[in-house]
Amino acid sequence: MRTIDHIVIHCSATREDRSLTVTELEENHRCRGFRGIGYHYYIRKDGTVINTRALELVGAHAKGHNAHSIGICYEGGLDAKGRAKDTRTPEQRSSMHLLVAQLLKRFKNNICICGHRDLSPDLNGDGLIEPEEWVKECPCFEVRKEL
After folding, report:
1. How far is it, in rounded angstroms, from Cα 17 to Cα 146?
2. Domain 6-146 bears CATH identifier 3.40.80.10
3. What is the pTM of this model?
4. Which of 90, 87, 93, 94 is closest to 15 using CA atoms?
5. Sign, CA torsion 120/144/98/100
6. What's the rounded Cα separation, in Å, for the pair 53 and 56?
7. CB 46 within 8 A of CB 89
8. What are the pLDDT digits (tens) for 89-140?
9. In what order do the strands lie in the sheet with 49-51?
10. What is the dihedral angle through the alpha carbons of 63, 67, 72, 77, rounded to the nearest 10 degrees?
């Protein structure tokens, strides 16, 4: 098994008034040159958690961090007009909390739980990744405060 030191939370950048099936997610990732879905887990709006990549396999979700991380993506992340928004349903929130708790129990080492945006480069070198430094807004909520 790989050494895991990060759990990285993502959103699918799907508008809240639309859905993104697992098949569509896989097609999107294959079009980007991946061999399949880059995340290890996908959480649908109804809270269903789908294992989309074996944990033993390196993900394709956070460049420079894939070898030692697990990627979790929730369906959503944009409002109806395409702006970044935390669109998680109560079911998604519950499923995400449970999944992260299970992963922390399984991988007992010191794991950092963060959002994809938190892995952006620290452009001003102050040791903090601030909103103006984010490469993207994904996952549209403060992961470290919530998880």
Report:
1. 24
2. yes
3. 0.93
4. 87
5. positive
6. 8
7. yes
8. 999 999 999 999 999 999 887 899 999 998 887 778 888 787 777 778 899 9
9. 49-51, 41-43, 69-74, 6-11, 112-115
10. 0
